[in-house]
Amino acid sequence: MEIGKYIDHTNLNMDATAKDIAKLCQEAMEYNFESVCVHPCYVALAKELLEATNIRVCTVVGFPLGMNTPKTKAFEAIEAVEMGADEIDMVINVGALKDKDYKYLQMEIEDIRDSIDGKVLKVIIETSLLTEKEIIKMTEICNNTFVNFIKTSTGFGKRGASLEDVKIINDHKNEILEIKASGGIDTYEKMSKLIEAGATRIGTSNSVNIVNNIHQCTDNDCHCDNCTCEKGEK
Questions:
Q1: 92: exposed, middle or buried (C-beta count within 10 Å: 0-12, 13-18, 19+)?
Q2: Averaged pLDDT for residues 17-44
Q3: Is 158 an annotated catalytic residue?
Q4: How big is the chain by its Cα radius of gyration, in Å?
Q5: Per-residue confidence at 88, pLDDT binned at 50, 70, 90?
Q6: Fold designation for 3-218
Q7: What mean pLDDT comes out for the span 150-162?
Q8: Residue 217 pLDDT more than 70?
Q9: Residue ranges of the domains in the chain?
Q10: Catalytic residue among 151, 165, 173, 190
Q11: How far apart are the C-alpha atoms of 147 and 124, rounded to whole Å?
Q12: 89 assigned to active site
């Protein structure tokens, strides 16, 4: 398994600087990650830095709360694609889901899907705020709207991805829909379990540490330097 191709190497920090994004892109090239995920204001910079590579540029829409209007989200997505984004991670209106306004949710997803000229669309549902029934319903909506991915978390919620979240989605998704797990994924052990449960993409800001400790972290007696796995020395 080429582990780097599962990873969206991410920096969505509020204080991220251009220098930080340059470092993110350099690391993505060094480790051959699938994409970098950056704030919209850094899409053009990331695209320029990665121009000679096959690494994708991913950005976020309606982030992190998802409470923007559908027109605002669609405008964000269109502008991001014009600046060079290959993938769009949009946050749903969780309040609309709680209100059972499924037509609204389908409409806002379809508006963005139809505005981005066939680019990859990932729908962030923030599973930490949802019941099992709500996760299932959002999976069904993502099935029906033919988006590329359903994504567990923004990383700004109460928690990140859980194995249970991914298993629920995997049990109810169609063959087209893929799963991106994100939030709190900081060890190879966690990452591999999420992949086994059905995730095909991992969003993490701990990518380099995960890859550097991949072999040690699979050993029963892990004592690698600076390891963050449950078995390693902190």
A1: buried
A2: 98
A3: no
A4: 17
A5: very high
A6: TIM Barrel (3.20.20)
A7: 95
A8: no
A9: 3-218
A10: 151
A11: 11
A12: yes
Mean pLDDT value of segment 149-168:
96
Token pair, residue 210, equals 């995960």
Amino acid at 199: A
Tell me what pLDDT residue 222 has: 55
φ/ψ (deg, to 5) at 61: -130, 135
User: Are 57 and 86 within 8 A, CB to CB?
Assistant: yes
Which single residue is written with the structure tokens 């095909």?
Answer: 200
**Which pLDDT does position 223 carry in this prediction?**
47
Name the DSSP class of 65: T
Sequence letter at residue 11: N
In order of 11, 12, 18, 21, 39, the CA distances from 15 in angstroms are 10, 8, 10, 11, 11
Which of 8, 47, 86, 89 is catalytic? The answer is 89
User: Is the pLDDT assigned to residue 111 strictly greater than 90?
Assistant: yes
Indicate if 219 belongs to the active site: no
Does the pLDDT value for residue 70 go beyond 90? yes
Per-chain mean pLDDT for the chain: 93
Q: How would you classify residue 181: left for phi > 0, otherwise alpha for psi between -120 and 50, otherwise beta? A: beta
Q: Is the peptide bond before 64 cis (omega within 30 degrees of 0)?
A: yes
